[in-house]
Amino acid sequence: MKKVLAIIGPTAVGKTALSLELAKQFHGEIISGDSMQVYRGLNIGTAKIMPAERENIPHYLIDIRNIDERYSVADFVAESQRLIDEISNRGGLPMVVGGTGFYLKALLYDLNLGGDHFEPSEKVRNKWHDYAAQHGQQALWDHLNQIDPDAAQNIPVTNERRVVRALEVYERTGTLFSKQQTVLKPRYDAYVIGLNTDRSKVYERINKRVDQMLDAGLVDEARRLYEAGGEQWQSGKGIGYRELFPYFKGEISKDNAVEKIKQDTRHYAKRQLTWFRHQIPVHWYDIIADPGIKREIGTSVSEWLEK
């Protein structure tokens, strides 16, 4: 079974720096697990590592889609599987860094992504998409969370298509979407490193990261996306972009939009941490409070690779 090293955790806890260190130590090649970093031109709001910062470490699944194109978990799994095979075959260590918990779980385990054991209903799908348009994606997700909380915890609020699919499966079959995925068969021998620190520090670092993004030109980047039609696209659903669109329309102030970015990022970090603690095995470390623990991480990875 091929080995895959993964590094997860909330924004601004040191994933990128650690990934570069471990990649150099273990001949790693990095696969981005972030569904927003695939988009060309969306660099600041996605905290994308730029070519000059990659220290000659190969990086994949970055800048592979135009902003008007869709990118699904099925795309991520298929492309990552191909890359893992290629990296492993040439003696490298595949490393998946960042991204949503569901993307990583779908890659590391043989999940049933389709939920297609029933006749799809365009009428049902349209009903739930209309509900989201009228009440918002959060309300749609909340509805799923009431019916099937296990499924809801696996699906980001902004992944409207996936939330609708889960509701459609339940409405058409009477079976909870989460119950279709009860047997987890590992695809890989995976070692998952989770980075985290005290919640107040996480929130402080998130707020600082957002301020840095603003200084780097986030508003102009988001405006280009908005003016290109991004409000209608998947790329425009990402945190850091969608909160600024009402500001561009004159509906809220810039300060309110910025506070909403910080708030949404904090909420997302909290949801992701809760998800990881219940869904897949993770080895947790706090390199913010104890930078010296990086040596222990390296030792643990080395021992895992030798098994």
General description of the model:
- With 307 residues, the chain is an alpha/beta fold.
- It contains twelve helices and six strands.
- It has helices spanning 15-26, 73-89, 101-108, 122-135, 137-147, 149-153, 160-173, 199-216, 218-227, 245-248, 254-279, 293-306; strands at 3-8, 28-32, 59-60, 93-97, 189-195, 283-285.
- The longest helix is centred in the C-terminal third of the chain and has 26 residues, at 254-279.
- The radius of gyration is 19 Å and the shape is globular.
Order of helices and strands: EHEEHEHHHHHEHHHHEH
Structural class determined from secondary elements: alpha/beta
* CATH homologous superfamily assignment of the largest domain: P-loop containing nucleotide triphosphate hydrolases
List unreliable stretches of 5+ residues.
115-119
Biggest β-sheet strands, sense, barrel: 6 strands, parallel
How would you sum up the global shape? globular
Please summarize what this structure is.
The protein is α/β, with parallel strands linked by helices and 307 residues long. It is built from 12 helices and 6 strands. It has 2 domains: 3-111 and 184-306, Rossmann fold (3-Layer(aba) Sandwich); 122-181, Histone, subunit A.
